[in-house]
Amino acid sequence: MATEAPDDPPDEHLLLPVLPLREVCLFPEASLTVMIARPGSLKALEISARTGSRLLALALKDGAGPNPREVHLLGTIATLAEDVTLSDGTHRVELDGLRRARALELLGGDPQVAEADCLDEGDPGDEWGPAVEALARYLHAHADLRSFLDQQRRSKEPMAWVNLACQHLPITASARQKLLESDAPARCLRISRGLDALLRKEKGD
């Protein structure tokens, strides 16, 4: 399913149910499959399904434990592309990332509802080319990852490859969140440097 940009202008404020994510981030123009079993998160899915199939995916902070309120305030508005209930009651959910947003205020208990401020990605400009070249070098050495990203791509937008790399590279959750908090030019610059550093480390340089 191709991801389309939402019609909401960048300064639009939305009320969206919050889906806390552990150890992962969802990036714009990328997709993510997660297993959901926690009651509060299941309720967030129900609210989303009744109100336009959109939600705000926010990563839990490091060491958040079971508290779903300990989330980073910058995340990604997502569409609920698929929601399959498994035999044990767990839901397998596919999320398609649309646009970064910042939670201005978190309301309610569990699930939470966020007043979200849509953020402009910015034009990657001259930073996009070096980022894609660095990604090509990295994927040349990791055929399995290249095949996986090919299958995961849901958008024809130029930044889709960079965002998919940010989402799936073997980096820490905190490093992934920092990439998400960067606009498109800064994200391209960070990922191009990070990919080349990963390659050097793997080669023992």
Task: Describe the structure in your own words.
This protein is an alpha+beta fold and 205 residues long. It folds into two domains: 13-118, Archaeosine Trna-guanine Transglycosylase, Chain: A, domain 4 (Roll), CATH 2.30.130; 125-203, no CATH class. It has helices at residues 39-50, 128-140, 143-152, 160-168, 173-181, 184-203; strands at residues 13-21, 31-36, 54-59, 74-85, 91-107, 113-118. It is globular. The N and C termini lie far apart (40 Å). 36% of the residues are buried.
Structural class: alpha+beta
Provide the domain count. Answer: 2
Number of strands: 6
Q: What is the name of the CATH superfamily of the largest domain?
A: LON domain-like
Second-tier CATH architecture of the largest domain:
Roll
Give the uncertain stretches in residue-range form. 1-6
Provide the CATH topology of the largest domain.
Answer: Archaeosine Trna-guanine Transglycosylase, Chain: A, domain 4
Question: What share of residues are in beta strands?
Answer: 25-35%
Could you state the order of secondary-structure elements as H and E? EEHEEEEHHHHH
**What is the count of helical runs?**
6
Give the strand order, joined by hyphens, for the main sheet: 1-3-4-5-6
